[in-house]
Amino acid sequence: MNHSNQIPHTPLDGTFYAIGLNYKKADAEIRGHFSISETAQQHILDAAKREGIPSLSVISTCNRTEMYGVAKHPFQLIKLLCEHTHGTVEEFEKVAYIHKNTAAVSHLFQVATGLDSQILGDFEIISQLRNGFRRSKKMGMLNAYMERLANAVIQASKRIKNETDISTGATSVSFAAVQYIMAHVPYVSQKNILLFGTGKIGRNTCENLIKHTKNEHITLINRTKATAEKVAGKFNLLVKDYADIQSEIAQTDVLIVATGAQQPTISKELLFLKKPLLVLDLSIPKNVSDDVRENPFVTLVHLDELSSVTNQTLEQRAEHLPMAKAIIAEVEEEFNNWAQHRHFVPTVKALKAKLSEIKSGEIDYHRKKLTDFNEEQAEILSDRIIHKITTQVVNHLKQANGSTELHLELLEKMFQLETSKSE
Length: 423
Prior knowledge:
Blueprint: E1 15-22, H1 28-33, H2 38-50, E2 55-60, E3 64-71, H3 74-83, H4 89-95, E4 97-100, H5 101-112, H6 124-138, H7 144-163, H8 172-184, E5 193-196, H9 200-213, E6 218-221, H10 225-235, E7 238-239, H11 245-251, E8 254-257, E9 277-281, E10 298-302, H12 311-318, H13 321-369, H14 375-398, H15 404-414
Parallel strand pairs: 5-6, 5-8, 6-7, 8-9, 9-10
Antiparallel strand pairs: 1-3, 1-4, 2-3
Helix pairs in contact: 5-7, 6-7, 7-13, 8-9, 13-14
């Protein structure tokens, strides 16, 4: 769908931008520099509010960091991102993308529906987007334009999930990790597996491990033991204290790290090995220091190196792409039509008010002049004429393509209209 000849379907108080970086051009290290913790996301929204940015939402996952917001210039958003992460503007410029207005809307639809994911049809992203929108709304940082857009992308995601099979077959980082283990570790059901970190990725990995490996030798360690015990109880697994991590690593065959920390939690100092150890780091930023490779027993694999899902699954999913794209096109067009129409609503409202003012003046004049003046009929007739004129104006503006802004200005000058274009 090409909107290049139409008016930009913008929010009323600025330009809508989607800025960010993802797995396509930014490696795990750079993505780590721009990773935003939940606390940092809160700080970004606070700072944006202070700086007068009317609407903003933030997402940070292992594969991408993105900001969607209404601003006068994209640098307002880039500056916020770099101030609240370890990334620099120079680094951002090398790997980033900046989309505006309809291109930004299209990008968000692709992301929300799993079409831009590292694993086609990965729907984990939509819950993270939804949380981001919810957080922004709670803080008064989601204007009417972005709230409508958020609802539209959530609707498209639901429809694709319900109406196509693009998300069939196992997905996600956690499944990719299990696939890797099964392909590279012989007799996996008899090996010792240690999972360090029981956040969302850790829990999903745990579930997939049990389901696919039939392994009963899985141990969990988490900095907060109670969290690990909750997960372990669900799956009947062993929990060890964080203080025992060194001795537990020495006994294990596979170590999966998903701690979600901002700094590495596993380094070579923790390793006292007498047998081979496969280490999978499922975290962004990296939670396993590269120096573990200095130990000859260690094989370290980061999530970027994991084979995502089998080619067969991807091929099956790709068959459903046309249907998914058709759903996106339909919902996206509805949103863009709403945004386009909304862009000139203030002018049309002001025109209607001006014509009603003229009507009132004329009816008042004729009431005084004519003795048998039928005021009720005049009201009905005038209202019909006003309705037909404004409908004609709306239809013209919808088809005015690139000159809509000019026509809006002319209308405002011609009728001396006062429009309110704030949210």
